Amino acid sequence: LTEQELLRTVLSVPKIHSIKTKSTTKAATRKSPKMPVLAWDDFLNNAFYASTALDTGNRIFSRSNVTGALSVEDSVVDMFLKTMEATNNQRLILLPTPERWSKRYVCRAVKGQPDAIRCGAGNIQLLNDLDASLILSAVEVKPEQLMKTLVADGTELFNAYNTALTTEDDGTTAYTRHQKIIRIVRQLFGYMVVNDLKYGLLTTYIRTWFFYRQDEDPDNLYISPTVHINQSHTSDSASFLECMYYFENISTTNPTAHSSPPNTDGGNDNDDKIDDDNDEYRPSSSKRSVLRRTFGRITRSQSKKGKDKLNDNEFLNSMKNYKRSQFSFGDVLGNGRSGVIFMTKLHEQVGALKMVDLYKKEYLLQEILNELKMYLGPLKGIQGIYIPKLLKYGVLHEAFVFILTSFAGESFANNRSITEKEKQLAINGLMEIHAKGVKHGDIRLENIMMKRNELTGHSYVWWIDFAWSKMINNTEDLDAELSELKHLLGMC
């Protein structure tokens, strides 16, 4: 096929299986910025104009044959990437700097957890070796079964979003639906912001919306009209794949946009200014009362789920929002359940940064909030001694909750020469955590960090990752966890 023939392929609408639509965006109740989006009015016209320049001479592409059905979100991600592999990726890998649509793990520097990305590398071998160095656009995927309950076919997403912004909370299902629309859009916008991307797309596979951030003011977000998967080329409109082609071209030419901060209604982005110059985080007086209520409940007992949820919401809304421009991301330190850990500088403080999406996986948000509560509550007194020092925490550009802790070196899992003394330091550290009434909950070599001072010969050992930690009064459980560690270290 020629390039024109390939990209004018009309894709079929796959069978859609019914599912129980449970949005992944229900976890956070932090206020969203009241910033309307804008219509990308010329997208379709520009895509059609770009389609008229497609190559018609070189027959170098294979005919696509994509089949399958859609059900849960993962199946939509797979179908989207399978379709791109069979169509647009054929062209993208031939570019001077090869590109492809792929899963996010192809590029280790991706921040957050977008469902897919378009990435590039210096040569095709690096791209095939999952060593891409360039992120060009982010993709967020939602099942059509969910999105059709939020944005009816025939309604444009930018209109639905702006309507949702003005809806007052009346406790009805309609209000909840509007909040889901806001959070889905903010989720993709967050990936674009934190990765300094100008472009992104939201897709159900059946329907796709293209996003871009304005050069003059990157907080101005534009959303295209709906593009259907079976959209064909006509005398005045581009096919779906031709729309993708246009989007690929403009995001290759100018992929980057840097950010200014959003503000939430009632938020105080100037709060805690004095903290920015300090070596440790000290909550403002306005937040201390929230923290007392939060950690008081933790230390007394494990509350019922409903109270915990209310508690988390209050804690989340008390957090300061930081600008994307305040963060300088450095080397990748590792990869965990919540995503990539980066060496990061925030103001004058440098450490390991972990972040979790506000609007994606509820369990990950709950885990990072739990970890914060442990740092600020029962484990506060042993920071910098047996656990890393908490340097900062808060919300990044109203899209992610983050924790910045002091750099703790490398893990026991990555060091084959752990000494008996270092093993004993790990045991001592866990015993100190237990002395605070905390069960760590995730005893692994990856969660024991160490640094050695080559001049003095001293070793320092810290425990990390308190996502599953909890306060308990049962000494038998604590003793069992200590025995588990000793067995792991071969010191039974």
From TrEMBL:
Kindly give the InterPro entries that the UniProt entry links to this protein: Kinase-like_dom_sf, Meiotic_Drive_Suppr_Kinase, Prot_kinase_dom, Tyr_kinase_AS
Q: Which Gene3D superfamilies match?
A: Transferase(Phosphotransferase) domain 1
Q: Where is the Protein kinase domain?
A: 327-492
The molecular function terms in GO held by this entry are: ATP binding; protein kinase activity
Residue ranges of coiled coil: none
Where is region (Disordered) located?
Answer: 254-288
Q: Where is the composition biased (Acidic residues)?
A: 268-279
Give the protein's recorded name.
17479_t:CDS:1
Originating organism: Funneliformis caledonium
